[in-house]
Specification:
This protein has 297 residues and is α+β, with helices and mostly antiparallel strands. It has one domain. Helix content is 27%, strand content 34%. It contains eight helices and 14 strands. A hairpin with a 2-residue loop joins strand 8 and strand 9. It is globular. It starts with a helix and ends in an 8-residue tail after the last strand.
Length: 297
């Protein structure tokens, strides 16, 4: 009996030791961080993006808020920290360790933020006034995108790219594989092709005065066009620039007063969607400490 007890205790001790073993620390093999040049022209906007090709990872002109969003898989409104983080942009070129895959990049960016920017944070729940994006009673009117054709056997794996191109006519964000979103300044409209339904609330939230929470239950990819009146579209672009940390002159901020926001609900109605004002508890990442300048490469 004593021998059995000894064996059982040893087994429990081994199990406890195994359970307490921390997960392996994931980090880039090497990473170079440089401050990005200020955004001052459409050509600068075109540099913003992510490119992952094999073991090479390039994060171009991303703000600290963008990096935290990517690393912790949260929305912009879930980050509570210094306002300057939205304007502090960096170019990061990194190399993945051999055998790594794309799923490990998020924890690697977390490690980079902790090691190089001294990031310290905690999580807490906060009540927020939000817009709930729901399907209208009239039913969904968005067109679901055609499915991709099956990949040929032996076809090489595609690299991952998120790139932006910009001109005086507007900006296009290309997600690869035929998926993109265009913000057309001439026609005061958004056009989306093969856009995941879950990405629409995040996009709308960049132009709103409060978070947008997805309550549609939609899971597919969709093609759509949202058209606005000129004043509302201009005001949405200004709010987006403010959220991105762009410093605007007082004249631009005064243009917000010319918008009443009526065209957004009307535009969403054409897609069979609507926004409802609600309050909701949302988990927030509270930034306790972060450095403006990363440690040496």
């Amino acid at each position: 009996m004593r021998a059995m007890q000894t064996t059982l205790i040893a087994m429990l001790a081994s199990a406890a030791a195994f359970a307490q073993t921390p997960a392996p620390r994931l980090e880039f093999e090497v990473a170079s961080i440089r401050p990005s040049a200020p955004i001052s022209s459409p050509a600068d906007v075109a540099r913003i993006g992510v490119h992952i090709d094999g073991q090479r990872v390039a994060l171009n002109m991303l703000a600290l808020t963008d990096l935290i969003q990517s690393a912790y898989n949260v929305k912009l409104h879930q980050i509570s920290g210094p306002d300057w983080m939205a304007g502090a942009r960096f170019d990061i070129n990194a190399k993945l360790p051999a055998g790594s895959d794309g799923k490990q990049i998020q924890p690697m960016i977390q490690t980079l933020l902790v090691d190089r920017f001294g990031l310290k944070l905690h999580r807490e729940m906060r009540d927020f006034p939000v817009y709930a994006l729901t399907v209208a009673k009239t039913g969904l009117k968005m067109k679901e995108s055609a499915p991709d054709p099956p990949a040929a056997d032996g076809a090489p794996a595609k690299s991952f790219d998120v790139t932006a191109s910009s001109s005086n006519n507007g900006t296009t964000i290309n997600y690869g594989n035929g998926s993109y979103m265009t913000f057309d300044m001439n026609n005061s409209s958004f056009e989306g092709k093969k856009v995941p339904a879950t990405a629409l609330p995040d996009t709308l939230a960049r132009f709103m005065d409060r978070p947008v929470v997805d309550m549609t239950g939609l899971t597919g990819n969709y093609d759509f066009t949202l058209k606005f009146n000129q004043d509302d579209f201009r005001a949405m672009m200004i709010r987006s620039a403010i959220a991105a940390g762009v410093v605007l002159p007082p004249e631009a901020l005064k243009l917000l007063e010319t918008s009443n926001g009526d065209s957004l609900p009307n535009a969403l109605e054409t897609l069979g969607l609507k926004l409802e004002q609600r309050k909701a508890p949302i988990e927030v990442l509270v930034i306790d400490h972060i450095e403006k300048t990363p440690s040496d490469n």
